[in-house]
Design goal:
With about 325 residues, the protein is of the alpha/beta class. It is about 45% helix and about 10% strand. α3 packs across α5 (about 115-130). The radius of gyration is 21 Å and the shape is globular.
Length: about 325
């Protein structure tokens, strides 16, 4: 039985979520269909372009993504502080980037004189939009509806394109966040369609590596790495980028069956900092797509009431 979104997504429980959408039809989301002898590779660009455009308008940050042949993975961060700090005009401009909006709002933007009742109504509409700008459900809706429409138009057909609603998984602590991000970024390697992270097309890890190679300090459209949040007041993912890249590379080597006897046994610094040994980390990585919650037992217990849940469930990571 499906669960209400309110029991799966709550910014009070955690701002980080792993989301997955899968294609329902036999025809490909992306990639090359051998049976039909047709390439759908260009659709990866559709998804990536739409994803980053939505991230620029919404108060939802993209931590990681991987666009596969019949599904895609995202790790998203709900930026509630950014949403709350937006002016009314800022909220309207972001929402109208993807919507028409009522005439009353356009009058507000143009600076027309509004009656007291109109101003009150305008304010109510804007506050609804403010909430939606930090809603993963609205974010995923605008992403999936657009891709489904474009794919149906190209395939000259109608009907469902996606396998129901997207799957979401709450990432309750830093261990869960690191495990989910590595799982997402290593999807092409795990599927044997890329040899290394830097050759994994349409993934966030490749985008970050490309930015480094081009001497850029940040990757456009992606939530930045800021290191230890207790030492750095900047907003972003609480790891160092180089530690994370080392972690992804090390994890990828463990998951390659032909590399098991040749791996570098050195453990990346991030594993020590998060309280993992190598065996624990690989167990967490393997379970990164199982269940609707992932975190230490204390993190899960603390989130249950915020998510309106009573039973202790989800994948439990070892405590530090």
């Amino acid at each position: 039985m499906t669960k209400a979104r309110s029991s799966l997504i709550s910014v009070d429980a955690t701002p980080y979520y792993h989301c997955v959408s899968r294609c329902v039809r036999r025809s490909f989301l992306c990639g090359y269909d051998e049976q039909a002898q047709q390439s759908y590779e260009h659709r990866r660009t559709w998804i990536e372009k739409r994803l980053l455009a939505l991230a620029g308008a919404f108060c939802i940050d993209v931590c990681a993504y991987a666009i596969m042949s019949n599904h895609y993975h995202l790790v998203l961060h709900i930026n509630a502080d950014k949403a709350k700090s937006l002016t009314q005009r800022g909220v309207v401009e972001r929402w109208l980037a993807f919507h028409q909006g009522p005439s009353l709002i356009h009058r507000f933007i143009q600076g027309d004189s509004l009656s007291e009742a109109e101003s009150e109504q305008c304010g109510e509409i804007i506050e609804v939009w403010r909430e939606r700008l930090m809603s993963i459900s609205w974010f995923m809706r605008l992403l999936n509806q657009h891709i489904a429409s474009e794919a149906n138009r190209e395939d000259k057909c109608t009907g469902h394109f996606w396998e129901g609603r997207f799957k979401s998984q709450a990432l309750l602590d830093e261990k869960a966040l690191a495990a989910a991000m590595a799982y997402v970024d290593l999807n092409p390697v795990r599927a044997a369609i890329a040899a290394t992270p830097e050759t994994s097309d349409f993934t966030s890890v490749k985008a970050r590596i490309n930015a480094i190679e081009n001497d850029k300090t940040a990757t456009e459209g992606l939530f930045p790495f800021v290191g230890n949040p207790r030492e750095n007041m900047s907003e972003g993912i609480p790891f160092r980028l180089m530690d994370y890249l080392e972690l992804v590379d090390w994890t990828g080597r463990q998951c390659r069956e032909d590399k098991r006897g040749q791996i570098d046994s050195r453990t990346p610094p991030i594993l020590n900092r998060l309280g993992f040994d190598s065996a624990e980390w690989l167990d967490a990585y393997k379970h990164a797509e199982k269940g609707t919650l992932i975190g230490t037992e204390s993190s899960i217990k603390g989130a249950l009431s915020l998510l309106g849940r009573k039973r202790l469930c989800g994948f439990r990571l070892p405590a530090t």
